[in-house]
Amino acid sequence: xxxxxxxxxxxxxxxxxxxxxxxxxxxxxxxxxxxxxxxxxxxxxxxxxxxxxxxxxxxxxxxxxxxxxxxxxxxxxxxxxxxxxxxxxxxxxxxxxxxxxxxxxxxxxxxxxxxxxxxxxxxxxxxxxxxxxxxxxxxxxxxxxxxxxxxxxxxxxxxxxxxxxxxxxxxxxxxxxxxxxxxxxxxxxxxxxxxxxxxxxxxxxxxxxxxxxxxxxxxxxxxxxxxxxxxxxxxxxxxxxxxxxxxxxxxxxxxxxxxxxxxxxxxxxxxxxxxxxxxxxxxxxxxxxxxxxxxxxxxxxxxxxxxxxxxxxxxxxxxxxxxxxxxxxxxxxxxxxxxxxxxxxxxxxxxxxxxxxxxxxxxxxxxxxxxxxxxxxxxxxxxxxxxxxxxxxxxxxxxxxxxxxxxxxxxxxxxxxxxxxxxxxxxxxxxxxxxxxxxxxxxxxxxxxxxxxxxxxxxxxxxxxxxxxxxxxxxxxxxxxxxxxxxxxxxxxxxxxxxxxxxxxxxxxxxxxxxxxxxxxxxxxxxxxxxxxxxxxxxxxxxxxxxxxxxxxxxxxxxxxxxxxxxxxxxxxxxxxxxxxxxxxxxxxxxxxxxxxxxxxxxxxxxxxxxxxxxxxxxxxxxxxxxxxxxxxxxxxxxxxxxxxxxxxxxxxxxxxxxxxxxxxxxxxxxxxxxxxxxxxxxxxxxxxxxxxxxxxxxxxxxxxxxxxxxxxxxxxxxxxxxxxxxxxxxxxxxxxxxxxxxxxxxxxxxxxxxxxxxxxxxxxxxxxxxxxxxxxxxxxxxxxxxxxxxxxxxxxxxxxxxxxxxxxxxxxxxxxxxxxxxxxxxxxxxxxxxxxxxxxxxxxxxxxxxxxxxxxxxxxxxxxxxxxxxxxxxxxxxxxxxxxxxxxxxxxxxxxxxxxxxxxxxxxxxxxxxxxxxxxxxxxxxxxxxxxxxxxxxxxxxxxxxxxxxxxxxxxxxxxx
Length: 962
Known about the structure:
There is one protein chain. With 962 residues, this protein is mainly β. It has nine domains: 3-62 and 259-351, Sandwich (Immunoglobulin-like); 70-253, Rossmann fold, CATH 3.40.50.410; 356-434, Sandwich (Immunoglobulin-like); 439-521, Immunoglobulin-like, CATH 2.60.40; 529-610, Immunoglobulin-like (Sandwich); 618-699, Immunoglobulin-like, CATH 2.60.40.10; 707-789, Immunoglobulin-like, CATH 2.60.40; 794-873, Immunoglobulin-like, CATH 2.60.40.10; and more. It has seven helices and 80 strands. An eight-stranded mixed beta sheet has the order 37-39-42-41-40-43-44-38, with no helix packed on it. A hairpin with a 2-residue loop joins strand 68 and strand 69.
């Protein structure tokens, strides 16, 4: 292998042969295999015109406790681009010094190449302080000669220790500019020379924060320059740079394999798809069906190499090995022992392309079949079969890979899937339609009522599920679809009597018309007919019910008794109920029904009006037979021959209200009288009457005394609203209950000794009398029986419950029973209070001298208090100002300069080398405007921004010119 690698491995082999000579390596069995490999294919099955991707996963597992000495050269880009926009130079120097701090220089050595237009070097050695001091002195300027820097690093490594592995770690922002002719290609070639010389090559791309690493040209180039893709790293805006250097330090001297050569040979049934391997780092050398990857070192990671293959033959199918037995990985371990690892094989199944159907010539035909159709498409194979739905086509003829001819089998009317199946089982589909017009052989019955609704059976053939039927222009409702030969429908209503066409239409649009196939019968007469009435007599006062019997009676008909219209109730088409109208004198009249159309039916001289005869009433009992002189008592009168017009008198006074219950019972309300007495009770029916002498006695009303003895609850808050029970004697509905001067609500009178009331809101805290007053006057008082208690105040939360010790935080205090005159203190200090509602107050926090929780106390005018805590946080420190750019980086004194950046505030000041700029104007937090103060022509000064809190920005250069 390469001279440097051979020398290193020879020395290591010699040293390890004497076990324990080096303190940086422990002997490990040379038989150990530190490399594993897996091979996969995706997809696992393709057609003869398809492609599949082969993937090799090569995993390295370093030996435990073996550290090989490394001579490392750090290449650090110091071109001018390293300080434009972002101070990448400072970050790069700090990260490099951190790298050196982490290195074990008792085992390894380190040197430095720093470069811009030219390269400078610091020799390889073990003095950490000296090399870090050298790095501190690096200053950024000039162009980017990356290729020359690699040349300089190879010069430092030309005389590396024989036992040490040479390593280059290149950090750059990627924009190589020297030489002017293809600087990237020049750098890439120098990196390849270094790798060919056995040098392990790491690259770190220092990208801008806005760069896309997946598409950044410099980043992709440096990834290709690295020993493998896993030897390449990148950062955006220097973020994570220290961690990357630390990770490389951990890898230094530890590897799974050296001088790795991966040889993968593709089986002869396949060929490699050109350029399908170009994304690999490193790229393979491809010769025929052989791919070879070579790289200096495999770390403790997994490398993935991919490429694509495709079948050579378009007719050879089956399952084939992807590679051959010559596919191996050759490498050397840390001791120089040569190792070979066989690459496992995998298989790929190749099949013919699936057939495709592009068209079917004559894609429709009669359900009887027998017609020949042509199927056009792709990838047909001799021996292919054709199926129409579930039926196999006959006499299939293979014309070519693009054409088949087949005889269509019989099938059911409708669309079916045509399936072409090659001998290997692969299928393609098309569509075919069996179609013909439906056939009608009979329609039974062939006639029906004009209103429709009768069942009609249609027999024939080729009637599809979903078929529709029209009688004339109206669609019939489908009742039964049995099969293509038999259906049943409900006939729709007709427009007029007579024959109509019957049209049968299939869902596929095929149809047949049977002329004059169904006849609508003329409807029978529906003129109204009166056959009888009941009863046939009634009083001249009318109002009685008369039932009219007949046929073809409707709800909109009118009924006349003579020439007077009666109120009508429709019962059925054979019966109406009419309320006989009143007439002036006894008479006999016709009864007539009249339809809306004006057609009538009359029974002549059928109803007789008679004069009324007043019945003679009798009184058998009055209950109750006593009542107060105030009247209003309901009395039941029992007897005979009462009617709805009966009147009742108590003495000479008529009842206030009489209710007819039945011909044997009335209910009457007693009128008020002036004094107690016994009076007659009289019932009057027109000219007839009945009297019960002294049948009712009026007595004097004496109110019952009322007493309340106890309350179930004797106290509550001023809000009231709670319920309690009052126990007493002669408690009556309609009573007034007072708690002090406030009226309570009687919610439930359970009995005359027990009642529930709702307590009213109180006026003042303290005890009050409770008084019950019945509506008829008597009252009772329990002195000082109920006590109103103060309404408790509570705090349920603060929003927010913390803020800075600078004060000024708006805080909402949520709780209950706040007063408009509530006061608030925070840590003993009174604050202004805004009353929002009885459940919310608003305050602003005062400045606090302490950090942490302090008490918050709400106090009501009555002295009640509630408390919680508020947390004071430390003061928020505003971020320091940052300068990103100047609108002008040079000019004479009094030049207007816009300074862009972030975290600027009103009151900021700008200094040019400590001299205060004039004409300061605050634009916003990202821009201010100044005029440069006086300065010396040719001098370079540092511009800084100082915020009012004393925080100072970074410095940006400004040059004074004439």
